[in-house]
Structure to design on (229 residues):
């Protein structure tokens, strides 16, 4: 099937899951995870109607951006970002989804201040306490957020998570629900540069469960592009 066919089918599945959660598909931001994809296939996904493109690797981001692959939609950075590559990402993407430490936040804030912009970010939370995943543990999230308020170059727009590999869909739903509760709890607090607009969770294998448990942004790769070779 073509990328267009895949996106159309995906939109139908999003609509079903959104409806079951009391929303519509327009409430869900579909981010195409474009890791390893060519500029040509990324352009096909954009033409098919994805809402944004999410890149995992800085070098791919730079190369595809130069090729005009993302033209027409916002670009997000969704991979692990090293501090020494912050300058290549800040102000080059509309959203950095994978911010997981105060040190990285400070580096982003410094570069954003130099460029006189405010960089939108999501805080990555390791909701499953998986040692193989990046992200701050939920218990430490409040202390991290307290340190963001003096950073004029940062605007937190929500949270992101990547679950551990799980075979039990009930456990997947439980962790997504736990993540949603963290999101709601922070939404009730008053920070001047922190807003809970986006809860980014769910990928090709579990996006429907994520939507059912409150996600309003999903990051989908293989369902759009097919399995990586």
């Amino acid at each position: 099937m073509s990328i267009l066919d895949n996106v159309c089918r995906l939109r139908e599945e999003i609509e079903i899951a959104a409806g079951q959660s009391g929303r519509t598909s327009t409430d869900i931001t579909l981010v195409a995870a474009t890791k390893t994809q060519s500029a040509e296939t990324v352009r096909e996904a954009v033409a098919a109607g994805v809402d944004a493109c999410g890149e995992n690797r800085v070098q791919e981001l730079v190369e595809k951006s130069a090729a005009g692959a993302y033209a027409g939609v916002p670009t997000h950075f969704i991979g692990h970002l090293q501090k020494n590559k912050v300058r290549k990402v800040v102000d080059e993407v509309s959203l950095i989804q994978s911010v997981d430490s105060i040190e990285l936040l400070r580096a982003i804030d410094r570069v954003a201040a130099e460029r006189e912009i405010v960089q939108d970010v999501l805080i990555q939370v390791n909701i499953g306490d998986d040692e193989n995943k990046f992200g701050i543990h939920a218990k430490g999230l409040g202390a991290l957020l307290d340190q963001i308020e003096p950073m004029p170059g940062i605007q937190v727009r929500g949270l992101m998570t990547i679950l551990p590999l799980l075979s039990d869909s009930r456990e997947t739903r439980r962790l997504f629900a736990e993540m949603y509760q963290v999101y709601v709890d922070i939404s009730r607090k008053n920070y001047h540069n922190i807003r809970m607009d986006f809860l980014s969770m769910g990928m090709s294998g579990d996006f429907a469960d994520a939507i059912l448990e409150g996600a309003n942004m999903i990051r989908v790769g293989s369902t759009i592009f097919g399995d990586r070779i």
